[in-house]
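Model: Ready when you are.
Researcher: Fold this.
Model:
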Amino acid sequence: MATLAMPRTTTRFGGLQLAISVLVGLTALVHLAIGAFTNVIVATDPARAASMGGATALNVMAALFYLCGLGYLVLTVALYLPALRRWRRLTRTALIVFTAGTILAYVALAYGHIDAFGLADKACEAALITLLVVEGRRVRS
């Protein structure tokens, strides 16, 4: 009786993919934490919230931070989920563009209030873009 060999469709998850996942986890955690911190300011310190643009503006910013953190997680899961393997190149490109967009949004919205914490997160995001580009080039070669 003949046996039929099936090609392996598993995803290789090595050091590069682990580093990408860790960087995504860190920056997603930062964005989720900032969203939560912003909500705490609105709920507990109305005077401070008013001085920062008002409760409505801060609630919108908190929602954007939550969505940003969630976007990082969803795109990374989609990138390495074996069922979505055929869309990996598109997903990687979307994650690169998404990350670049968050860097640009930080620069545009910081209004000169750039701090060490924000710069550390943006350095993490720049490293993420670099690793995603390296991973993409390795896959093509």
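Researcher: Now this one.
Model:
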Amino acid sequence: MYIFSAHDHGGVTREYFECCLAALPTFQLHGRYALFEGETDHLLPSTDSALLRSGVFYAIGKLMAHCLLNTGIAAYGLAKPFVQYMVTPIIDDITPFTIKPDDIPDLTFREALQIVRLNNLVCFNVRYPDQEIELLYLKSTHE
């Protein structure tokens, strides 16, 4: 009987974590709660209250940390501004970044933002202290 020794250089561990990361963007908790929303390469964590209460994002954070340590990759398909925010240790040190329309998962808000941008509208915030109301006006810069 021969016993051969083999060296494991972490290939199986890296493959395991890569498979976990690749499955995250399309994974659904209990078949109905999507963990991430948005388009490919512009994904953001879901804001579903059931997911937030369940603690699943804490577990995903731990998985992503292990993946980063073992493979050097923390996530596939996430929006770049979100990744930059996530890896910056001090919030005040975040460099300004550009949010593209594709980074906004809410289609209604994205369309409204594009209308504002295409029509060169500027937002004015007017506060009426005696009436305790605050109004937002959109005005064209062409006038």
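Researcher: Key takeaway?
Model: The mean pLDDT is 76.
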